[in-house]
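Q: Here's a chain of 415 amino acids. Please give me its 3D structure as tokens.
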Amino acid sequence: MGAVAMTSAARRGWRVGKVRVAASVVLGAGALVAAAGAGAADGPGLSAGLGVGAGLLLVGALATGRRARRGGSGTDELASRALDALSTHVAVLDRRGRILRVNRAWREFAAANGGRSEYDGANYLDACEACLRHEGASPEERDIAQRVKGALESLLAGESDRFQIEYPCHGPSERRWFLVRGTRFGEGDGAGAVPSHENITARCDAEQATRHGEAALRGFYEHAPLFMGIVEPTPDGDVLHVYDNPPACRFFGVAPGSTAGKLARAEMGADARTVDSWLERYADAAETGDAVRFEARARNPEGERLLSAVVCGIGPGPTGRERFCYISEDVTERRHAEDALRESEARFRALVETMPQMVFSATPDGVADYFNGRWREYAGEDACAVGAGSWTDRLHEDDAPAVSGAWSRAVAEGT
């Protein structure tokens, strides 16, 4: 399935030079390094680069030119030059799978990897079969060789017009992937096939990086303590849940993943007031292009809860409608605690304001931040200005040393 010596490589057994070759690199008893060609084979395949139609015109010209060579036709030479101009590794096979021609990219890759430079008359199908029989082939390598052989046989028998198969072809110092495309041409005795091999490592690396990024992001979403998800407002005033992370699903009292594809109002039981309030925030985010922060009421199996949320537009989904991500947190208990603290402070202030004793509070460095009413009556409003120096400045000079010392000791000891 590639451009390396078939028979000679087979005798050497799974090594061309010092490079271990995957059996996925077809055309050879396991040594077919060129299955898809690295280096010069980084360009588009025959079908991708020229289009199937143009590629078959070249092949047809080659076949016709070969038959007419005795008559001195220049068609064969012209077609060969055009085929050699392709960066993808291309071979032309007759209806029995014998190689009629390989292009320059194929030959150069073969030469760079210890293969031979001429392939005319070698049989591509026999090389696939040799891969299958080779005792050093792994199960994965045999599987790829069988798939390519079967697809090519089907192509040559007229049962299909084209095929494409991706396969790995890793070297000792790099990982790489290739795509073999097969295209049928002609009819009867003039039928044949064109296998071409394209290096798709860059694409596979990008896809793998994308998968890793998505996996990392999904891991973050699924293990974060906050409620996170992606939603899509609908034209009829509802909210389609595209994804909700497990904490969000637990908040709603449903199994993780069960909210995907469901409408908040029509299928999840959200009341109209709640849905409308979120729709307003999504509209604000779409209009401003910024994240929108807000608090909203929501009901779950425990009753009404208070959420602190942020929503932001993330672009259109498959429907063309804008989608939004949300991050929210249940702050019900926190708000209850804050309310309770404020109520406690209010009760404390009401108590000290009515006491006959003078009460004040100050920071550790002595700067007063509160005087009760009795103190203000005694010392006067001007003397009780909050933040106006240390409270010890207001002491009589005879009492200041002892009281200031007691204050310093209390601050140091935390008593």
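Q: Can you summarize the key feature?
A: The chain is about 40% helix and 20% strand.
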